[in-house]
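Question (not urgent): is this output format expected?
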Amino acid sequence: MPTTYIKTRASNENGVNGASLDVPAIVRDVIDNVRSKGDAAVRSFSEKFDKWSPKSFKLSKEDIASIIARVPKQTVDDILTVQDNVRTFALAQRKTLVDLEMEIRPGVHLGQKNIPISSVGAYIPGGRYPLLASAHMTIVTAKAAGVKRVIACTPPIRGEIPPATVAAAHFAGADEIWILGGVQAIAAMAIGTETVAKVDFIAGPGNPFVAEAKRQLFGEIGIDLPAGPTEILIVADEKADPVTVATDILSQAEHGPDTPSVVITNSKKVGEETLVEINKQLKILPTADIAGVSWSRLGEIVVVDSLDEAYKLADVYASEHVQILTENPREALEKMSNYGALFLGKETCVSYGDKCIGTNHVLPTKGAARFTGGLWVGKYLKTCTYQHVTSEKESGELGLLCGRAARAENFEGHARSGDLRAHKYLGMQFEWLS
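Got this back:
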């Protein structure tokens, strides 16, 4: 049976209403203004885009305490539990990154050190939803890596400070919390202003403007990864429950109207029943106004001959979240290589990764899983090498080798650095030294 589509994407993928904005130009203008005008530009754009212009964008210790006091105890307890999960996994990851030193030849020592980045900006999106989970993923992981200074920026939501997000940032270990969003927040952290001290690295998801700001500023600062809209792909076999497939697809489609949601199955029956169930659930889902648009535009149900074909096709998509609803889900670990994160078996769902299980939810999108993984503790570390030659004889031998290797590339200055050691430690004579 050839590959068939029970549902395909809509032809218009450029925008919900077909409208387009020159996102790079808008972002460039904001960055240029922040670079030249500092705090004044930040305030102006915050007023323009968020209708937000407090006396200070930075929360004081007293502000933070007062805001957290408004958060329900159960929410605080849940934040602490989730952060403990994230911290436990991040610290375990950190232990796998070890410093090393080896003596490659007698007296020739080579080594590496994993050095934490000094300062990090954590962007915690707001907009449609208060994404406090992003505080866990960006700040807790940075602190587990040993980052000394973490500044958190999150936008107001409909003109109000999001208390649970502030609580999450505080308990995660943020050294500063700013109620500031959008491109102006990214630019302020990356460039620095009169009141915002520049950071070395920015992490966290965001809307297309935030993603573009990170892209344009990359090189001036480091970034975790360029990220687009959330994606989900489910591989389902003939025994998969269509209700589960539909529910889990819609769990991600509600992120926004631009979320690709794909089901690949070797069962036409499962595919057809999943489509019926999705349409049924959209009639009662409170976020159907968003999820329904996303599913209509970017949803797909694909039927293939076998699970092997399903895994191969899933690797072509290289989706951010890949959920495996099959009888033997762990075979995907051997048969797949392109994914942001795998979610194995019917007891596991993508929402666990998004909200609470402990792995990081800042993941590659738009096919980037072909060449990178997601945010993890290692992203906050610089693996730096060092060399120490303690043997004069070996230094001389290296000098001879360096001279030959450098002259093969016409680098005479490099060659003479080697010559000098060969002269000093082996007594070799060179015309330029006479």
